[in-house]
Amino acid sequence: MAYRVVVLVSGSGTLLQALLDAQAAGALDARIVAVGSDQPGCRALARAQDAGVDTFVVPMTTLLPRGSAARQAWDEEFARAVDACSPDLIVLAGFMKLLGEPFMRRFAGRVINTHPAMLPAFPGAHAVRDALTAGATTTGSSIFWVDDGVDTGSLIVQEPVPVHPGDDEDTLHERIKVTERRLLVATVNELARRAPAGDPTSV
Protein backbone atom coordinates (compact mmCIF):
# COMPACT_ATOMS: atom_id res chain seq x y z
CA MET A 1 0.00 0.00 0.00
CA ALA A 2 1.35 3.44 -0.92
CA TYR A 3 2.57 5.71 1.86
CA ARG A 4 -0.10 8.40 1.96
CA VAL A 5 0.96 12.05 2.20
CA VAL A 6 -1.22 15.10 2.76
CA VAL A 7 0.48 18.43 2.05
CA LEU A 8 -0.74 21.61 3.76
CA VAL A 9 -0.12 24.95 2.05
CA SER A 10 -0.92 28.65 2.34
CA GLY A 11 0.97 30.38 -0.44
CA SER A 12 2.69 29.94 -3.78
CA GLY A 13 3.52 26.26 -3.35
CA THR A 14 7.12 25.96 -4.51
CA LEU A 15 7.87 23.28 -1.91
CA LEU A 16 4.71 21.45 -2.92
CA GLN A 17 5.83 21.68 -6.55
CA ALA A 18 9.06 19.87 -5.70
CA LEU A 19 7.04 16.98 -4.28
CA LEU A 20 4.63 16.99 -7.23
CA ASP A 21 7.52 16.99 -9.70
CA ALA A 22 9.17 14.08 -7.90
CA GLN A 23 5.90 12.18 -7.94
CA ALA A 24 5.38 12.83 -11.66
CA ALA A 25 8.91 11.62 -12.37
CA GLY A 26 8.42 8.42 -10.38
CA ALA A 27 10.98 9.63 -7.85
CA LEU A 28 8.67 9.88 -4.84
CA ASP A 29 8.27 6.72 -2.76
CA ALA A 30 4.87 7.90 -1.57
CA ARG A 31 1.60 9.20 -2.95
CA ILE A 32 0.32 12.73 -2.40
CA VAL A 33 -3.34 11.96 -1.75
CA ALA A 34 -4.50 15.53 -1.06
CA VAL A 35 -3.40 19.12 -0.66
CA GLY A 36 -5.18 21.23 1.95
CA SER A 37 -5.15 24.93 2.72
CA ASP A 38 -6.51 27.67 4.92
CA GLN A 39 -6.35 30.16 2.02
CA PRO A 40 -8.91 29.82 -0.79
CA GLY A 41 -7.42 30.59 -4.18
CA CYS A 42 -3.77 30.33 -3.19
CA ARG A 43 -1.38 29.40 -6.00
CA ALA A 44 -0.40 26.13 -4.32
CA LEU A 45 -3.94 24.77 -4.70
CA ALA A 46 -3.80 25.47 -8.43
CA ARG A 47 -0.50 23.59 -8.64
CA ALA A 48 -2.11 20.57 -7.00
CA GLN A 49 -5.16 20.72 -9.24
CA ASP A 50 -2.94 20.98 -12.33
CA ALA A 51 -1.22 17.78 -11.16
CA GLY A 52 -4.54 15.99 -10.68
CA VAL A 53 -4.28 15.89 -6.88
CA ASP A 54 -7.40 16.36 -4.75
CA THR A 55 -7.61 19.59 -2.77
CA PHE A 56 -9.63 20.90 0.16
CA VAL A 57 -9.93 24.25 1.92
CA VAL A 58 -10.99 25.13 5.45
CA PRO A 59 -10.84 28.93 5.23
CA MET A 60 -9.17 31.08 7.86
CA THR A 61 -8.51 34.33 6.06
CA THR A 62 -8.31 36.40 9.26
CA LEU A 63 -6.12 35.42 12.19
CA LEU A 64 -7.94 33.62 14.99
CA PRO A 65 -6.05 33.69 18.32
CA ARG A 66 -4.81 30.28 19.45
CA GLY A 67 -6.87 29.11 22.40
CA SER A 68 -9.99 31.01 21.39
CA ALA A 69 -13.21 29.09 20.87
CA ALA A 70 -13.32 30.10 17.20
CA ARG A 71 -9.75 28.94 16.65
CA GLN A 72 -10.36 25.64 18.41
CA ALA A 73 -13.40 25.04 16.23
CA TRP A 74 -11.31 25.77 13.12
CA ASP A 75 -8.56 23.37 14.23
CA GLU A 76 -11.11 20.65 14.83
CA GLU A 77 -12.70 21.17 11.41
CA PHE A 78 -9.31 21.24 9.71
CA ALA A 79 -8.26 18.07 11.53
CA ARG A 80 -11.43 16.31 10.33
CA ALA A 81 -10.72 17.33 6.74
CA VAL A 82 -7.17 15.98 6.95
CA ASP A 83 -8.26 12.82 8.75
CA ALA A 84 -10.71 12.07 5.93
CA CYS A 85 -7.65 11.58 3.69
CA SER A 86 -6.18 8.86 5.96
CA PRO A 87 -2.62 10.28 5.90
CA ASP A 88 0.47 8.42 7.00
CA LEU A 89 2.37 11.71 6.91
CA ILE A 90 1.38 15.38 6.89
CA VAL A 91 3.82 17.82 5.30
CA LEU A 92 3.63 21.53 6.06
CA ALA A 93 4.90 23.15 2.87
CA GLY A 94 4.66 26.88 3.37
CA PHE A 95 1.65 26.45 5.66
CA MET A 96 1.60 29.70 7.64
CA LYS A 97 -0.51 28.81 10.67
CA LEU A 98 0.56 27.25 13.96
CA LEU A 99 -1.58 24.15 14.33
CA GLY A 100 -3.61 24.05 17.53
CA GLU A 101 -4.06 21.39 20.20
CA PRO A 102 -7.05 19.63 18.61
CA PHE A 103 -5.05 19.08 15.42
CA MET A 104 -1.81 18.07 17.12
CA ARG A 105 -3.57 15.71 19.51
CA ARG A 106 -4.94 13.79 16.53
CA PHE A 107 -1.79 13.79 14.39
CA ALA A 108 1.13 13.96 16.83
CA GLY A 109 4.16 12.18 15.37
CA ARG A 110 2.90 12.44 11.79
CA VAL A 111 3.56 16.10 10.94
CA ILE A 112 6.80 17.49 9.48
CA ASN A 113 7.79 21.01 8.56
CA THR A 114 10.68 22.80 6.88
CA HIS A 115 12.49 25.90 8.14
CA PRO A 116 15.00 28.17 6.35
CA ALA A 117 17.68 28.11 9.06
CA MET A 118 19.79 25.70 11.08
CA LEU A 119 17.46 25.26 14.03
CA PRO A 120 17.54 26.03 16.89
CA ALA A 121 19.11 29.15 15.38
CA PHE A 122 16.69 31.75 13.99
CA PRO A 123 13.27 30.22 14.69
CA GLY A 124 10.10 32.02 13.68
CA ALA A 125 8.68 33.64 10.58
CA HIS A 126 11.66 35.83 9.63
CA ALA A 127 14.55 33.39 9.79
CA VAL A 128 16.35 34.59 6.66
CA ARG A 129 16.09 38.25 7.65
CA ASP A 130 17.21 37.42 11.18
CA ALA A 131 20.29 35.54 9.92
CA LEU A 132 21.31 38.52 7.78
CA THR A 133 20.69 40.99 10.61
CA ALA A 134 22.83 38.88 12.94
CA GLY A 135 25.69 38.87 10.43
CA ALA A 136 25.69 35.08 10.13
CA THR A 137 28.11 33.65 7.59
CA THR A 138 26.19 30.37 7.37
CA THR A 139 22.53 29.53 7.66
CA GLY A 140 20.70 26.55 6.16
CA SER A 141 17.61 24.41 5.99
CA SER A 142 16.03 22.16 8.62
CA ILE A 143 13.29 19.56 8.47
CA PHE A 144 11.72 18.62 11.79
CA TRP A 145 8.80 16.92 13.51
CA VAL A 146 6.16 19.46 14.47
CA ASP A 147 5.23 19.79 18.15
CA ASP A 148 3.25 22.40 20.09
CA GLY A 149 6.03 25.01 19.99
CA VAL A 150 7.35 27.36 17.34
CA ASP A 151 10.02 25.44 15.36
CA THR A 152 10.92 23.42 18.47
CA GLY A 153 10.27 19.85 17.33
CA SER A 154 12.84 17.07 16.97
CA LEU A 155 15.16 17.56 14.03
CA ILE A 156 15.15 15.06 11.17
CA VAL A 157 17.81 16.54 8.88
CA GLN A 158 19.69 19.80 8.34
CA GLU A 159 22.02 21.14 5.71
CA PRO A 160 24.05 24.38 5.86
CA VAL A 161 23.84 27.10 3.22
CA PRO A 162 26.54 29.79 3.09
CA VAL A 163 25.67 33.46 3.25
CA HIS A 164 27.42 35.20 0.37
CA PRO A 165 28.75 38.77 0.49
CA GLY A 166 26.07 41.04 -0.93
CA ASP A 167 23.21 38.63 -0.20
CA ASP A 168 19.86 40.21 0.54
CA GLU A 169 16.82 38.44 1.93
CA ASP A 170 15.53 37.40 -1.50
CA THR A 171 18.78 36.03 -2.91
CA LEU A 172 19.63 34.12 0.26
CA HIS A 173 16.14 32.70 0.62
CA GLU A 174 16.10 31.49 -2.98
CA ARG A 175 19.37 29.63 -2.43
CA ILE A 176 18.04 28.08 0.78
CA LYS A 177 14.89 26.96 -1.05
CA VAL A 178 16.95 24.90 -3.50
CA THR A 179 18.35 22.93 -0.56
CA GLU A 180 14.98 22.85 1.19
CA ARG A 181 13.19 21.28 -1.78
CA ARG A 182 15.79 18.55 -2.19
CA LEU A 183 15.82 17.74 1.52
CA LEU A 184 12.03 17.57 1.67
CA VAL A 185 11.76 15.06 -1.17
CA ALA A 186 14.56 12.96 0.32
CA THR A 187 12.95 13.04 3.77
CA VAL A 188 9.53 11.96 2.53
CA ASN A 189 11.20 9.12 0.64
CA GLU A 190 13.16 8.03 3.69
CA LEU A 191 10.09 8.04 5.91
CA ALA A 192 8.11 6.12 3.31
CA ARG A 193 10.84 3.50 2.97
CA ARG A 194 11.05 3.00 6.72
CA ALA A 195 7.31 2.89 7.33
CA PRO A 196 6.76 -0.86 6.62
CA ALA A 197 9.30 -1.71 9.35
CA GLY A 198 7.09 -0.08 11.94
CA ASP A 199 7.30 3.41 13.32
CA PRO A 200 7.21 6.03 10.53
CA THR A 201 8.86 8.55 12.90
CA SER A 202 12.04 6.50 13.32
CA VAL A 203 14.30 8.68 11.14
UniProtKB/TrEMBL annotation:
Classification via InterPro entries: Formyl_transf_N (IPR002376), Formyl_transf_N_sf (IPR036477), GART (IPR004607), GART_AS (IPR001555)
Cellular component GO terms, alphabetical: cytosol
Chain positions recorded as (6R)-10-formyltetrahydrofolate binding sites: 71, 96-99, 113
Record's signal peptide: none
Stretches assigned to the Formyl transferase N-terminal domain: 4-187
UniProt keyword list: Purine biosynthesis, Transferase
Positions marked as site (Raises pKa of active site His): 151
Protein name per the record: Phosphoribosylglycinamide formyltransferase
Gene: purN
